[in-house]
Amino acid sequence: MNRRYIATLALAFxxxxxxxxxxxxxxxxxxxxxxxxxxxxxxxxTTEILEKRGFNVTIVQEPITSLADDxxxxxxxxELQDGxxxxxxxxxxxxxxxxxxxxPTVAGLVYVAAFQPEKGESLIGLASSxxxxxxxxxxxxxxxxxxxxPAAFANDFAADLPKDEAAFLAKSQVFASKEAFSAxxxxxxxxxxxxxxxxxxxxxxxxxxxxxxxxxRAGSDVTEIKGxxxxxxxxxxxxxxxxxxxxxxxxx
Length: 252
Known about the structure:
The protein is of the alpha/beta class and 252 residues long. The protein is built from eleven helices and nine strands.
């Protein structure tokens, strides 16, 4: 066995060990897409927990002017990441990550009390297929945008949060265009990439049974957590646990 052959074997072994070490280290980038009728500020606690665990977390602040605009904004954030990324979506954010998840930097998808559509489905179509209750949704005067009546926000969206936190979410909610809610998605990324789904068992915005059905259809790894639609804010530790596990499992 000559020296050149031995050197080649050594180089191949070293390369494989470096690759294994990188894989073992896991996915470290997490990009979060918040839902409609909220903004990214509610994800602060979950973000801080994940950062303490060594993750690099970025939150997409979508305009929610159209589904296409929100997918484009998510892709802009994904392009800023260094290395593979776990893409997380809450509520309407699930519609966004189902398309943005095709970005080659995305290693896996996490749906948090989220819509998980099949090709050709819209948010309004899914929501009306199995209503969650009487959401107090109102239209702006121009008829183009939707919002939750601030007086009903806590009950509809964040029933398990302290009153002051729910009130802040109500004041900072991002109005959603009707166009975003009626847009139909293309081929969803969950068909080609591993996915996880958190079902909020006390959800009054999306029917928990609808969340279960969509996750089962997608073959997602499902975790049920007792909490409202704002599960990311009311149960940040448990949500962070699922995201961390997904990041680790994606790397295997």
